[in-house]
């Protein structure tokens, strides 16, 4: 049985982790923490998030001396800003904790990317090297079992890679034409305190960070090909829908595409593949799935992928990786 610490438990992602872990059969104890000066410290989590009423009433503890927490837990989930992870992950690893980091702090091996896209100098290249990237459907099961630091992919990179990876690995795309990804995220993607311009009144539907989004290098690194990534913010709370347009190699038929996806995903319980249809966003909200459909015309394919950014885009994927690492059935506590 495992003792768990969630750092950032009062945030959008932290709450979802707490819900899943509170019903997990391998978990004996959960500690929830927030920053040392948090206004939410010492309150029970159900006072902050009313949906947890009569479900979880654990206290939110201020992370004053992280070493004290580290001594008493086996597994830590970081659901905080990447700067917090960058500072504290090494300490928890030094206490032999297994760390699942949901921030972007350890997802890419090249430290220069952090200077360019995250605006800070990465100080732990050895951890960038030793971390494993937890895109659950593609992670090497034997490798993840050996690793102490699991970097959970970003929300957009999860949806986009689920849509593209089988086609890239099977060499079905004509890469003289870069895949163009238009993706729309709900506002919860920006955390519980979004800047004013991202509030639902101000947003409507707007593209942002074109050619500059930090998920661009993450996607290209792990997918292995360049893409055009156009992120948009929509004035709804949860969910990501990615519409991906690509050119196929000559003579690739629709049936071949379906068979390719089927080969990769038919034994992956959290990917729901549509045969003659495309998914919609509402059907995945509150659920741990990533839904995938496509349509072809001549040499073009349009792929549509949907997920809940807080679940398959964050918390449920972290639990999926936790299940794989600790030898549970992949969907334990998720469905
Ligand atoms: N939202 C999303 O869709 C996704 C988010 N992620 C990543 O997951 C992480 C969490 O995101 P999200 O839940 O949206 O963020 P939120 O802003 O909603 O929550 C952040 C949490 O961290 C706490 N916190 C802040 N500073 C510290 C600190 N120094 N020590 C301990 N706790 C701290 C906050 O509480 P307090 O400030 O009161 O201390 C809060 O509980 C981020 O790295 C994000 O990039 C990844 C994929 C998707
Ligand atoms: C809508 C919105 O603002 N989304 C965030 C991405 C979500 C996220 O948390 O990304 P990381 O896990 O990589 O930090 C953004 O575009 O920056």
From TrEMBL:
Record carries keyword Amino-acid biosynthesis: yes
PROSITE patterns: ARGC (PS01224)
SMART domains xref list: Semialdhyde_dh
A GO cellular component annotation in the UniProt record: cytoplasm
Chemical reaction(s) catalysed: N-acetyl-L-glutamate 5-semialdehyde + phosphate + NADP(+) = N-acetyl-L-glutamyl 5-phosphate + NADPH + H(+)
Localization (cell): Cytoplasm
Known EC number: 1.2.1.38
Alphabetical keyword list: Amino-acid biosynthesis, Arginine biosynthesis, Cytoplasm, NADP, Oxidoreductase
Enzyme class per UniProt: oxidoreductase
Domain of life: Bacteria
Gene Ontology BP terms: L-arginine biosynthetic process
Catalytic site positions: 155
Residue ranges annotated for the Semialdehyde dehydrogenase NAD-binding domain, each copy included: 3-147
Pathway linked to the protein: Amino-acid biosynthesis; L-arginine biosynthesis; N(2)-acetyl-L-ornithine from L-glutamate: step 3/4
Gene Ontology terms for molecular function: N-acetyl-gamma-glutamyl-phosphate reductase activity; NAD binding; NADP+ binding
Family classification: Belongs to the NAGSA dehydrogenase family. Type 1 subfamily.
Function: Catalyzes the NADPH-dependent reduction of N-acetyl-5-glutamyl phosphate to yield N-acetyl-L-glutamate 5-semialdehyde.
Protein name: N-acetyl-gamma-glutamyl-phosphate reductase
Naturally occurring in which organism (per UniProt): Buchnera aphidicola
